[in-house]
Fold:
Amino acid sequence: MAVAVACILWFAVIMYSVFGGADYGAGFWDLFAGGTRRGDRPRGLIDHAMAPVWEANNVWLIFAAIVCWTAFSQAFGSIMKTLFIPIILAGVGIVVRGAGFAFRKIAQKAGRKRALTAAFGISSLITPFMLGAALGGIASGRVPPGNEQGSLWSSWLNSTSIAVGIFGVLISAFIAATFLIADADRYYDDVMVGYFRTRAFVIGLFAGIAAVVGLFVLRDDAPYIYHGLLHEGLPFVIASGVFGLTTLGALWRQFGGTRVRLLAVATVVSVLLGWGVAQYPYILPTRLTIDQAAAPGSVLLWLVIAFIIGAVLVGPALLMLLVLDQRSRLDEGAETAATQARHRVVIVGGGFGGLFATKALAMAPVDVTLVDRHNYHLFQPLLYQVSTGILSEGQIGPALRDVTRNTRNCRVELAEVTGFDLDTRTVHAINPVGKQMEISYDSLIVAAGGRTSYFGNDQFERFAPGMKTIDDALELRRRIFGAFELAEMEADPEEKRRWLTFVVVGAGPTGCELAGQIRELAERSLRHNFKTIDPSTAKVILVDGGEKPLASFGENLSAKGRKELEHMGVQLRMGLRATDVDFSGLEVKTPHGTERIHAHTVIWAAGVAASPLAKMLGDVSGAEVDRAGRVAVLPDCTLPGHPEVFAIGDMMSLDHLPGVAEVAMQQGLFAGRTIRRRLQGGGDKTVTFKYVDLGSMATIGRFRAVVEFKRIRLSGFAGWVMWLAVHLVFLTGFRNRLGALFRWSGALLGRHREERAFTVRRASAGDDSYGSVLPTRSDQQRN
Structure:
């Protein structure tokens, strides 16, 4: 029982070291942030980020003190009798830093504010040093048990105490910097992420050097602890070194703030676990064991019971405090200046670009209005799986209101944008019941995405639908599954063959994925479902005007993709250009003339055009619009002459960027950060958008995919595993990820596809909710 309580005590010490260390380290960076002007921004982040840590850390200090004096009163008395000077100095530091932190926020005079800031920073150095010095005095055996009092000065002014005190200051600064990186990353503040990443790396190096030097100090001054660290505690010492080096590597490679913070916490926890194992079984090394210092068994039992009750009651409260802070709910109800109007941001489009822009502005002092003609955020790369019955539309299209439910400054409007007035800064829109709307803005982000391009042959759409929306995917599901149903009822062999022939136009990632899935559907899922046809005899033809499929993936992966498709039974017809489409099939132009491919199901996956809103922006701003309908933007993604208007994603033209989701995501974050930077007074310097190419991937079929990621090129099962991981990460919502994983398991490991139901009513433009209320061309001419 005594050992169990000692573990509880050490758990409290570890928790205080992590959260209290982050708190003290924040004061360290506050002290060295510079003058009022230069240090204002990092201090602002420190004030906001450290609030929940400040609220929680002293709980662990008080808890550790109570456990120590209740369960190990003899050791507690000896420690207080010998080390009361550093402990009192640490206590004074806690009071001074708390007062400085609280009162500097309300100080009116600059001189008083500077004095309080200095008091907060200096005491943030003194407190962890004194606590470390006291721990060093205990570890080096300078605290005698019982009524004997050790030296008031040499007990904490010795080589071990000084080494541990310095290490405590450095490791506190290190863990605080990683906490601040994570919070700056959460606020999408790139400047502060870089600021604290550099400092975390440097201070981490110094902390590592201090740890190595400290081992040599312990060898001479605290041999028992030194021996324990190199024997019983060696696994934890090695773990701390591995975690520490990994943290530095993550900082160097600019990994995400959350991962860096977790690695830093793991480093500190490993150090303290190693220390605890090295000191066992002594509470005062070589003089007083845990069992000798322990209180009666009944007292220890009640302490364990109290700890369990406290964990049940206080643990969730502390967790809720952290969650509320991460969601910026702690300041709800706070009064804002009535005379200060908030910056209004209108975001058009709830796709990847619009959603990531909303996230980037979640913590900013702005009011965001997100306008979309649909009520969902579409994960477009998985539309083909809705078409082929693997996933439901809800799994790839969660409601925008649900996705943004924790973004307090965002309001969602269901409406179709009909125009822009850049002079009055107004967006014109109409809702599904015909109500005209005018939405004013201070900054505008248009991320309306793209649509299927038929390269000037829009009449093809009737017989060869594309795949850009949920309506398109459901229409394709109706046609694909309906073709098998009609083939089952058809008596004419030629007509039956036409129903069992599927032509996919376009051999890019979408076309290859769809062609592969139709073959998987026919070969596996529908095999025993029909009486008069064999679905596995269905013919899938992939047509493209280029020389090879997946041409953007390079020669090697393109060849592997071709091999996989042919192995599945997909017929590749390269070098063909579609010239006509009707109910009977597709007419193509070949190098030798024309040819007709007989099929009742033709799917268009060959081209992308910008949303009509791109041309609207070009007309009202004078910006150029290319043949694909994309509006040309400046290097900072704004329209010429209108720095407050951003056009991002598939609808803009800049440096020949590809029309992929990753471009829209990065531009959405960039636009949101640019608005934040302007509001923070950093709008004088124009920052250009720099796209980071994260590669491309396409799944060909069951456990087959091709992946290109920088210099890494994968295919087959290894590529499929990487494809699976990436798509699970980018799906919105835990339930959707879990549901998709179950559906993929059923379809890939088994043969089952749950989403095979389709409606007999065609999802077409004539059924569009906005089609009945938007003015027609004749109405506009009449007016």
Remarks:
- The first strand starts at residue 282 and ends at 284.
- The CA atoms of residues 154 and 628 lie 79 Å apart.
- DSSP finds 26 helices and 25 strands in the chain.
- The longest helix spans residues 190-221.
